[in-house]
Amino acid sequence: MYSNGAVPRARKERKVSVVFRHPNDEKHCAGVEAVLCPVVPNHKLLFTASRDSTIKRWDAAGPEAIMEASFDGHADWVNDMAIIGDLLITCSNDQTVRLWKAGSENGQHLHTLSYHSDYVTCLAAAPARSMVVSAGLRAEIFTLNVETGKHTQLYPRSQQSASPNSLSSASSVHAHVSVPSVGVLGSEDGPFTGGSVSNSPFSSSNLAKEQPGSVYALALNPTATVLAAGTSEALVRLLDPRSGKKITKLRGHLDTVRALLLNADGTTLLSGASDGTIKLWDIGMQRCVQTYTLHTDAVWSLLSPDDSFAVIYSAGRDRALYRTYTHTRTSELLAVEEYPVRALALDSDVGLDVAGRSSVGLWAATSASHMNLWVVPRDLPPGSAAGVDTGRAFSVARRSQGLPVNMRNRMSLEQNRQPIARLPEMVIPGTPGLVLHEVLTDKRRVLTQDMRGHVGLWDVLQGAQVASFGKVDFSSKIRELWEPHSVPSWFTADTRLGCLCITLEPTSAFMAEEYGVTLEYGNVSDDFKVNYGKLVLDCAFAKWRYKLAASLSMHLQGVPAGVGLQGTGAPGNLLHSQMQLQGGGLAQPGTLVAAGSGSGSGGLPEGSGAQPYYLDIWPKYWTCRALPAVICSRQDGTRWRRLISSFDGTEVEPAEVPTWVGDVVLRNANVTPKEAKCAFVLLPAEGSNLPSLPQSKLNAPRILQVHKVANYCYGKLQDQGVPLVVRPFYLRRPPYAPESPPESCKGGEPPALELTCNGMAVPYEMSLATIKKYIWKRSDDLIFHFRIRDPEHPAPAPTISGPGG
């Protein structure tokens, strides 16, 4: 069994994030961080790992790559991958290492390992030894035996010895990994048997003594006798992964080491760094034997087709793909990408090029969401490159005189070097990722911009993009869409994953609400309010709520408690403790229930005979084409990600789902905002000759709109025998507003009521909170004056300036 190995973290309220995915979820929507092209008989497969938190498997045999499976579960950028047999191992900024069945049709997740305490940046594998090494920030390096499930902290060394641990993974744990039904990746890996070993958490005392740098690259030889780790200290740390003993440190780079290659016997090492250089090291002599200065910026990826390192491929931030012949110390420019290159994968079986020459393919993963396959003539024999390549090759030996190396290379790249390949042979398209966002003042719409510069408008209550503006100036569109609103911030937004993600915290998630009529809910009373945070949570956890209700119903009807409760040791009475019905607020199976239906949010009532709740039926206001995903964390801090259609009711609270979410979604907890009221005063304008109201100082919800204040004033004056009519005044007429009655030409029509604040007419579509913020502009009680409207001299409209005004 695998040990989850979760590192203890400080207790704090857990957040819930909702990821609004792009409609075409078969494509990546953010930069690709890693790519693998494993050698599989009779198949040509490609694995890509992205900043959008997903891994995808592609069939790249045809003229167009076909997405075969998506591996979903990570909650942040996926940084690296490794394959051992039919086991896919991935690591992420969510601080986990995850194991998947590589050949599965649905991206089957096997284990989540949480022994790292910070971002996990890189992996290295020795398949013959069933060993995977993971490393990341805080200099942490762990080894994992995929046969036994044992993991050990290799560096920094813990002061406590490892001790057996029989805890099973919190994810879907299988005692054995079966062979794939369609022998895609082979079946040589053995069963997962027996316990696990976990060292103590990361030692802060060791860190304080040495302050080792974070690890950004790993290389492990096939026999797992030498491990190289590239660090932010501009050095390569060599360790023995069997004993954890330090071998040596290789110094010479001037910046973070970002790429490593190690030969089979562990005697020769290649390193690439952010200083733009590639170095060849003799490990026995512990020194650099050659430095190659071809790149103009950081080197992020290195490849070699064989163990001799006679030919190496490199790429990085300067977007250039090079092939270097180490024996002649010459290089040639193969291609130039549009974006910085994060990783390379070699495809040695691409056949002949158009000229009939034997060719080799390079898959390039960049900070964009698409992938390019570059096909170039196969490596030339060492010593012949300079003569055969008709001037394309150039010397990359370090020289110490003249212009700085990077400047000289940049000038040469721009003036003389022409790439061998001008266009990629194949492109795996992606969805342009979102890179900018702005939450508008209504705290409901979010303006976004993608990598192409295209601007779109999202509605977080609908969970979808509602408008597309094309390629326009982002700041100008913000000013154009700006409207005066005063709504508390109830979520934070980000586009880290290339798509829009909103995060809710218990302290602020329920601060914003709106009248159902304003949200165009049908068949609701005028005073019915919708809490934005509750609505989003009800939508996101609707399937979970329904599955729990179904399990509870089976339990109450005498079905054995174990049926439908395949979770982590859920006791028979667990549902009773989780789902205490409060006023019938929980749906029974077979009933379609919209979000918050217990409080009248537009859902169908229980027992109404509505159609059953299926996967494609969601609450009224959730109209997205691609179902969102939920990101949260367990009690131990391990983050999880799940499509809202993937909940099965086994997710227990508080271990997986926070209690505050269960209180709202299951138990209909009161979510009325603390600052929900606004005090205001209604006074007759000076010289209006209108009577004072019986009760002039009032309290009302801060979301109350002015037209209701006007109607209240009209009614009270009517009671005192003052006949007036209400003619609404709008800055922007809302869609729900009724048409104003036409002005009568007859002299007998009653005069119109006019409301002012600070001497200006108040727009009827504004709320009390908005009037207080933009017109009253004071912290004390809001004061309205009412009078008879003078058609010749009406009160001036307010002048409200937006951003930059």
UniProtKB/TrEMBL annotation:
- Family according to the record: Belongs to the WD repeat WDR48 family.
User: What InterPro entries is this protein classified in?
Assistant: WD40/YVTN_repeat-like_dom_sf (IPR015943), WD40_PAC1 (IPR020472), WD40_repeat_CS (IPR019775), WD40_repeat_dom_sf (IPR036322), WD40_rpt (IPR001680), WDR48 (IPR051246), WDR48/Bun107 (IPR021772)
Q: What is this protein called?
A: Uncharacterized protein
Key words, A-Z: Repeat, WD repeat
Question: Which regions does the record annotate with the repeat WD?
Answer: 41-68, 71-101, 250-291
Which superkingdom? Eukaryota
Q: Which SUPFAM superfamilies does the entry link to?
A: WD40 repeat-like
